[in-house]
Amino acid sequence: MNGYLKKIIASRALLSYSYGFLNVLLSLYLKSLGFSFLSIGIILGTAIIINAILALFLSMIADHYGRRNFLIILFVFFSISAFLFLYTKNLFILALLSGLGGFTGTGGGPIGSGGPFGAIQSAMITEYTKRENFSKILGIASAIGMISSVLGSFTITAVEIFGINVYLLFYIASILGILAAGITVFIKDTGLRSRHILPKISWRNIIKLSLPTIPSGIGAGLINPIFSLWFSLRFHLTPGQIGIIFGIANIFTTIMMLLIPMIIKKESELKTIVWSRVIGSISLLLIAFSPFMLLTALLYILRNGFQMGAIPIRQSFSMGIVDETERATSSGVTSFTRTGFSSLSPPISGNIIAYSIELPPLLSGLITLLDPILYYLLFKNKI
Asked: Which is more confident, 159 or 267?
C-alpha cells in the first residue's frame, strides 16, 4: 500500500477512535447537564446543520484549491471543539462546537462515510488508488476506522471501571485531533484540482446520488443521534454497557466491510447497495417492537453490519461515476443533503421519545426504506 495512503488511513484511525467514544457520550453528556429531550434534539439538529454546511462548502473548495490543506484545517476544528466542549453549558455554543468538531452523534465520522472529513479523505484515497481497487482500499480504510471506533467504544467501559469521569475523554479527543493534523501535514499534495469550484462535469450524477440521501438522512436523524440515550431509557443501561453494544456492532461492521468488497464485483455494486439498506431498515422496524435487551442489541448489531458494512461499496460506486477532480465535491454534496435533512429529525425524535420509546426506530425504519428504492430507480440502467 502506498505510504501516503497509510498516512491518510492512520489519521482517519485517530479520528475514528475519538468518535468511538464521543458519539456514545454526546447525548448522555447533554442529558447530564439537565437539558430536556427537546433541547438535546435542538442541539444535535443544529450541530448536524453546521457540519452539513462545512461538508458542502469545504469539499468544493478542497477540490479546487487542494484537499490536504483543508483536511488539516478540519482536524484543527475538531481538536479545538473537543477541548472546549466541557467548558460551557450554553445550548448554542455546544451546538456550534459539536457541529465544527463533527461529533454529532450520527456515527458518520468513524468510517469517513459522511461529513467533511469523509468527503475529503475518501477523495484523497482515490488519488492513490486504481479504479478497480476502489472498493478494496476504501473497505480497508473503513475497516481500520471501525476497529479504531470499537476501541473508542470500549475505552468508555475501561474508564468507567476505574472510576474516572468518562466525559474527560473529550480532552483525549482534542489531543488526537492535533496528532492527526500532524500526520496529514506529511501527505503529498498530488496537485489534482477541479477547474471550477462548482461541479461542471459530473453534476447530473451528483444530483442523482444526492436524492436517496434525503430519506436516508431524515430517517437516520430520528434515531442515530440518540441511540445511546434510547438504549439508556429503554433498558436502563450505563454508558459502559452501551459502549460494549456499540463496540460489538462496530466489530461486526468491520468484518462486513472487509468481507463484502472481497465477494462483490464492480458490476454488482448497485445491487449490494440496495439489499444491504433494505436489511438495515427492516432491522430498525424490528428494534421498535423488540421487548428484550439482548434481542434488541443483536438487531442493532445486524443493522449496523449491513447498513454500514456496505459503505465501501457505495463509496466505490459513487466515486466511479464522478470525474476524479470532483469526487470530494460529490461526497460533500451527498453528505450535505443527507446530514442537512437529518438535522430536521432530532428535535422531532427528542420530542416524541418522551411520549413513545418505540416511535423513533419505527419511523426511522419506514422512512429509510425509500433510500434503496430510489437507488434502484435512479441507477437501474447500471445493473
From this structure: 159
Split at pLDDT 50, 70, 90, the class of 105 is: low
CA distance 383 to 368: 22
Average pLDDT, the chain: 88
Domain 3-373 top-level CATH class? mainly alpha
How many other CB atoms sit within 10 Å of the CB of residue 197? Answer: 13
Question: Could you please report the per-residue DSSP string of 146-208?
Answer: HHHHHHHHHHHHHHHHTT--GGGHHHHHHHHHHHHHHHHHTSPP-----SSSS--SSHHHHHH
Return the pLDDT at 104. 73
The C-alpha cell 450535505 sits at: 336
pLDDT in tens, 111-143: 444 578 888 988 899 888 888 888 888 888 888
Q: Are 284 and 306 in contact (CB under 8 A)?
A: no
- Average pLDDT of 321-333? 89
Q: Within the chain, where are the H helices?
A: 3-32, 37-65, 67-84, 91-101, 115-127, 134-161, 169-185, 203-210, 213-223, 227-235, 239-263, 269-289, 293-309, 311-320, 327-342, 345-352, 359-368, 370-379
347 within 8 A of 38, measured Cβ to Cβ: yes
Domain boundaries, the chain: 3-373
Among 97, 62, 359, smallest CA distance to 233 is for 359
Instruction: Give the residue carrying C-alpha cell 432491522.
Output: 283
At position 354, the amino acid (one-letter code) is: A
DSSP 47-81: HHHHHHHHHHHHHHHHHHH-HHHHHHHHHHHHHHH
A 10 A CB-CB count for 339 gives 31
Confidence bin at 108 (pLDDT 50/70/90): very low
Cβ-contact 383, 271 below 8 angstroms: yes
User: pLDDT tens digits, residue range 272-311?
Assistant: 999 999 999 999 999 999 999 999 999 999 999 998 888 8
